[in-house]
Write a structure and sequence with these properties.
It contains 1 helix and 3 strands, in the order βββα. It is an alpha+beta fold and about 80 residues long. It has a 3-stranded antiparallel beta sheet with strand order 1-2-3, with no helix packed on it. A hairpin with a 2-residue loop joins β1 and β2. The longest helix is centred in the last third of the chain and has 10 residues. The protein is elongated, with a radius of gyration of 18 Å. The chain starts with about 25 loop residues before the first strand and ends with a helix. The mean pLDDT is about 85. InterPro entries: KH_dom-like_a/b, OsmC/Ohrsf.
């Protein structure tokens, strides 16, 4: 884990100097693991892994949250 002195300072300015907008790019790769189970690799510099599945009533195994659960949780953040 980086020391506090190695971490970049947060930028609270609404726009970088000389610019009037910001943009971000998020890369996502998804693997189909079969039976409604999917694994996503999200991020550009650091890859986070997200699994999702569906309940048995629609062909999954409930081994991970359903996509709608992730969507609902994202609203809370």
């Amino acid at each position: 884990m980086p020391q506090d002195s190695e971490r970049p300072e947060p930028n609270f300015d609404p726009f970088p100097p000389g610019q009037n907008r910001r943009s971000t790019v998020t890369e996502v790769d998804v693997e189909d693991l079969g039976n409604m189970l999917r694994r996503a690799f999200v991020g550009t510099n650091v890859k986070f892994t997200i699994d999702c599945d569906e309940p048995p009533t629609i062909g999954g195994n409930s081994t991970a949250p359903a996509p709608l659960h992730y969507f609902a949780a994202s609203i809370a953040f």
